[in-house]
Amino acid sequence: MIEWLLSPVDPERVHEVSSLVAWHGRGMVLAWGIILPLGVIAARFYKVMPGQDWPREIENPVWWLLHRVLQYGGLGIMVLALVAILLSDVSMPGAALHVWMGWSMFALAAIQFVAALMHGTKGGPRDRGPDGSTFGDHYNMTRHRIVFEWVHKNLGYLLLGMSVISIISGLWISNALRWMWVVQIIWWIAIIWWFAALQRRGRAIDTYQAIWGTHPEHPGNRAKPVGWGITRGEPDAETDNESIRDRLTAKQTKTWWEVLILR
Q: Using an 8 Å Cβ cutoff, are 244 and 52 in contact?
């Protein structure tokens, strides 16, 4: 069994890659196969954390920190892995699809990064403008915000799908050892199961309601959520909401973790 796992997937070809090519593969698998999918799961399923009394407790900033750190970290590793393959100056047979897919993903990831900086203003009762108005792109779900969410979410899922093809093609052209294939496939099965389990439990809570609650007076609660399979709570005008972010901000003494998530 050990010998089988340590042998290349195609016994008629050798598994021989340079150090830079190997680091390119490790970096891309780490970024697109592990870190970036975890960032998507954090944003989709952990806007309301386990144990949080939602919708009474709202605006938990932990998910935003996790999503931001994982996505920026994954993109940073992707850039380093790209530099490694450019420095290697190696041409591998049968790599046309992999190269095309890689550059396409890099371009789309760059668009995703720029789009994330254009998410619009927040607004809301706790984030009023200088004039005291509650207006904000997110709070009022303006066309700007709706377009941003549609592009950001769908482009993210498209990139994850493309990453599967890219990783498989990379493993094949490098004639990766069988244990690499086994580990990657097991990880994909685990993350798909995790995703499906959280989706069945209704954990894909609407971002708007995770931040502002389910009171019908909030304008975004009168609009359809952007995306598929989104869970929304019943309209509730009776529950008094408590912002976890505001509660942490008001603390006189904060732990390093609390300081980090409030940044």
A: yes
Under DSSP, the state recorded for 159 is: H
Whether residue 45 is predicted with pLDDT greater than 60 in this model: the reply is: yes
1-8's contacts with Cβ under 8 Å and 24+ in sequence apart are 4/178, 5/177, 5/178, 5/179, 5/182, 6/177, 6/178, 6/179, 7/177, 7/178, 8/175, 8/176, 8/177, 8/178
- pTM: predicted TM-score of the whole model, two decimal places: 0.90
**CATH code reported for the domain at 15-261:** 1.20.120
Other beta carbons within 10 Å of 23: 18
Asked if 106 contacts 82 with a C-beta cutoff of 8 angstroms, the reply is yes
- Average pLDDT over the chain, rounded to an integer: 90
36, 74 contact by CB (below 8 A)? yes
Is residue 33 within 8 Å of 71, Cβ to Cβ? no
Domain ranges of the chain: 15-261
